[in-house]
Amino acid sequence: MAKTTTSEPAKTAEAQRLDEAREQGVPWRQWGPYLSERQWGTVREDYSADGNAWDYFSHDQARSRAYHWGEDGLAGLSDDHQRLCFALALWNGKDPIIKERMFGVTNSEGNHGEDVKEYYYYLDSTPTHSYMKYLYKYPQNAYPYLDLINTNRHRTRADPEYELIDTGIFNETRYFDVFVEYAKAAPTDLLIEISVCNRGPDEAVIHVLPTLWFRNISTWWPEEPKPSLKDASNGNGTGAIAATDSSLGTYFLHCEGAAHLLFTENETNNQRLFGTPNPTPYVKDGINDYVVAGAQNAVNPNNTGTKAAAHYQLRLAAGTIGVIRLRLTHAALVEPPFGAGFTQIIETRRCEADEFYRAITPPGVGEDAANVMRQALAGMLWSKQFFFYDVDKWLEEHRADPLLAETGMARNREWFHMISEHVISMPDKWEYPWFAAWDLAFHTIALASVDIDLAKEQLDLLLVGAYQHPSGQIPAYEWNFSDVNPPVHAWATIFLYRTEQALRGNSDLEFLRRIFSKLTWNFGWWANRKDSSGNNLYEGGFLGLDNIGVFDRSALLPTGGYLEQADGTAWMAFYSQTMLEIAVELAAHDRAYEDVAANFVVHFVLIARAMNNIGEGMWDEEDGFYYDILRRPDGVTTRLKVRSMVGLLPLGAVTVIEKWQRERVSKLAEHLSARLQRMPELVGSIHASGHRGVAGRGILALVNEDRLRRILSTMLDEDEFLSPYGIRALSRYHADHPYVFSVHGQEHRVHYLPAESDTGMFGGNSNWRGPIWVPVNILLIRALLQYYLYFGDNFKIECPTGSGNSMNLFEVAREIAARLTRIFLRDQSGRRPVFGGAEKFQSDSYWRDNLLFYEYFHGDNGAGIGASHQTGWTGLVATLIEVFGHLDAKSYLETGRAAAFDLE
């Protein structure tokens, strides 16, 4: 709960644009990378009878089938309602189709779940997208679609995934590096520069097709006027496409040089897909058929339609670069679109991006770490996507209207109230092109470093818009909104509030009140729905940790009964604390919040008492660890002794109370102190705030000092949780000692898996049985910093356990942060752990500094696993670099001021 202040960064040009957007409404964010990288295979596009989204709308169909709810593309952008879209298409003269979108294997094709099989990188972006840079590596030989599908499909879960690099397609460097840069001359004037480098040893030809199209709106909403594209070239050697829409007005895509303009309609090719007649001869894959098959009649000779491309053919000698320039603009230009000002604007925006990132990067951070930080934040900004989903209309189209007699089966029936049509920060725009509730809360922490307004807006969407259920539940994610994600949104809220106080010197109480009212609603949902027995031990089910436990926690248990979850209970304790801090802040301005604040203290104390109760709670005195409790229908209870992140999360339920906070609400503090004194039996096993720590600080913590020491001794043991690259999700102890639970003659086992999952639970592409996950590591680092504020140097512990090296808890936090950051940094031999054994990634100068931020990481060697572009919460590595680049232990302890984690 420490108060924080930091010096305001210098007003860079990009910071001024952010101010203009906030204070004057200048639409600098109207255009951005809001195009998905995969719309096919999503729930929104699934109209199947069995709910098999992957098979219903496949990658093969995507080139020919018009989408309903969104669009996808390569290195694309759109307006913030995704009406008009721009993206890149490529053809190497050998592929069976032009490359318009990313390819990957589906759940049934991959041996570890879905997986994108392309190499692309988000190299740079400013928060207003005034400058963006993207890299795609395109093979010169035929892309191995069938090889990737067949080889992966025939591998077992014990085998590694078969990646694009494994096919040999990049041997002899026979590929193109395709760089795409965007620079805004004005909010609605976008300069586009495409640079194609032939990395191969021989001359090679590439077709480059910058493509402009309208989302297919009028088919599904007939009342919408149909937009149009038409040839607007004026014969001066520069092509132009006019795009007219009833909402956007008219935009022009200017195309430098002798490009051939191709027009078709963004309409489904029914003949190819379903064997039925097409309503128009010009369909979505018309440009593909013209380029690849030479079908002259596949494009409209009248040069009109709703999809168009400028067709460039580049013949590049080995090692040479071809450059294509375009300009998408709303206003009429007073000078030629590609005059001297074009190059100057792009160079200016590049320099301004450098200036912006220099301003937020601590001066002591080295060049390599600064590059990691910048690419992580660029990935966060590139991962914004327009997400459109009117659930009521979608259910009606499925004949599954929940207010009528059931006539069909469909997901998310109980969420018919929900309408989403916003730009949202996505976990990964290919593997997870939809929001996830707890991911999004972590995203806001990282985004706060570059765009605090965007971060606040993202929390607003989930809690204040038409997302939250009337019951108070927050939607989890598209495949099942009713699943339960950890309640980390109160923490994110107070974090953003304190960050804005530090950056701008003012307090956005309206934001805090608005979010708090919705969080109170959600807190009530948790308290009433996830504590079946009313004993303050919580369930939760899925809780985002997927397959960490003995059973599928979203399904009925084979034993019957239910699980009381150590993580669910710890989350609720943490939720109580963060809600308390918000209530205290509001009570300082309005005493009506004092009773609410007192209520959250009581909630916390009751949860702590139940969880820590000797014999009946989740604490195991013999092992010195927290475990889930299985409660069977016959009343028999069993502690499921799996040493996992579930048992470490109770450490996170800790909040330091500063002296200034007590002084601001002195009557409330006195009331709470008296109330706790009347309940000594409830506070015996926890850190309650009676005793004062360093600088007169108080503390509310789920674990007392003795239990803290015992848990940390296990967590910091390199034979258990402490990896060279962070804290593992499961102890290595279970490698040789798997946990086995037998029921009805069947064994349910949990054993340590440092990398991919060996179970199909949750699709098989998510694994909490050993790898390192950044978000929960972040919460553990935050907890250690909180404890340090209270104990100072009065609490030290061996780190690693058994090493004889004694550290205070600040030093332990910094050590874990350093290990996490080490995943991405070059080591002494120049290798990055994140790349594992992929030699080209490690040693090739065209690959080794282009970073990927994976979903999770190998528990022993740090290699990236799972979704390869999950800069959502993995982007928090940027926050670690920033925070520990500024933090000094002495001043931190004395003032409680830091750039991040002690904010809440």
Specify the helix fraction band.
Answer: 25-40%
Rg result = 28 Å
Distance from first to last alpha carbon? 5 Å
Q: What is the residue-mean pLDDT, rounded to a whole number?
A: 93
Q: How many beta-strand segments?
A: 34
Low-confidence segments, given as residue ranges, are 1-9, 898-904
Strand content: 15-25%
Shape: globular
Strand order of the largest sheet: 6-7-8-9-17-13-12-11-15
Helix/strand/pairing category: alpha+beta
User: Can you count the helices?
Assistant: 26
The major beta sheet can be summarized as:
9 strands, antiparallel
Report what the structure shows.
The structure is a single chain. This protein has 904 residues and is of the alpha+beta class. It contains 26 helices and 34 strands. The strands form 11 sheets. It has a 9-stranded antiparallel sheet. It has a 6-stranded antiparallel sheet with strand order 1-2-3-10-16-14, with helices on one face. It has a 3-stranded antiparallel sheet with strand order 20-23-24. A hairpin with a 7-residue loop joins strand 11 and strand 12. Helix 22 packs antiparallel against helix 23 (809-822) and helix 23 (809-822) packs across helix 25. The longest helix is centred in the middle third of the chain and has 22 residues, at 566-587. The N and C termini lie close together (5 Å).
